[in-house]
């Protein structure tokens, strides 16, 4: 695979398997390269053994053996990491903790539980955007028109995001054409990026969208994950609806990853 010129690497340090998986899935979907560590000791080893610097380090405060503040202090004592941004990701939001985080060198503080959009927003603010070209802006325009129609008719509208997570390459345009033949004429299948499709389903509530999801899942080759958002219950405008569907997609990916890990452990 051709290496991205604007590749950016992030280290996520958290003792929660779920948080590590969620952060990894959310940020990898945005084009970042992610490594994770469960403890401060493991994180320091990854930092030392890595040839290139991480562009960003995200760390929890409450880690086993050595807390996040101690880890940041050790990290910042290395000259090459003096100017590398560190973001705290923690459920501890007391003024004392925030003050100590700033004192040891953290530049951002995101409180758990967090939303995918907020995590991405903070990361982009710190190290910039690296996502390969996508068509979310065009999707927003399409959704805006459909939401206006739904609003005038006092009807539901559903958005289904489906993303391919397999190892082999796919031709997303061919799969989009296959799905169009399985849906109604009023439905839209839109190519968001090389691995993601959006289905816009007018006059369709959450139950109807779930039926469509089940119907098309059997038609898709390989492993796909789904996220569903319904107007007006999950979003009053196109931005809110897309964000809700993305959140739903990320949660399904995280749950799937956890199940895969459990299966590997059992074997």
Q: Count of helices?
A: 9
Which geometry do the CA atoms define? Answer: elongated
Overall average residue pLDDT: 88
Our estimate of the beta-strand percent is 15-25%
What is the percent of helical residues?
40-55%
Radius of gyration: 21 Å
Number of strands: 9
Tell me about the largest β-sheet: 5 strands, parallel
Structural domain count: 2
Q: What is the highest CATH level, the class of the largest domain? A: Alpha Beta
**Any idea of the CATH topology of the largest domain?**
Alpha-Beta Plaits
- Spans of 5+ residues with little confidence (pLDDT < 50)? 1-5
Spatial strand order of the main sheet: 2-1-3-4-5
Q: CATH superfamily assignment of the largest domain?
A: Reverse transcriptase/Diguanylate cyclase domain
- Report the span from N to C terminus: 31 Å
Examine the secondary-structure arrangement and name the CATH architecture of the largest domain. Answer: 2-Layer Sandwich
Order of helices and strands: EHEHEHEHEHHEHEEHEH
Helix and strand composition category: alpha/beta
Structure description:
It is a single chain. The radius of gyration is 21 Å and the shape is elongated. A hairpin with a 2-residue loop joins strand 7 (188-193) and strand 8. The strands form two sheets. The protein has a five-stranded parallel β-sheet with strand order 2-1-3-4-5, with helices on both faces. A four-stranded antiparallel β-sheet has the order 7-8-6-9, sandwiched between helices. It is α/β, with parallel strands linked by helices and 267 residues long. It contains nine helices and nine strands. The chain folds into two domains: 9-127, Response regulator (Rossmann fold); 136-266, Alpha-Beta Plaits, CATH 3.30.70.
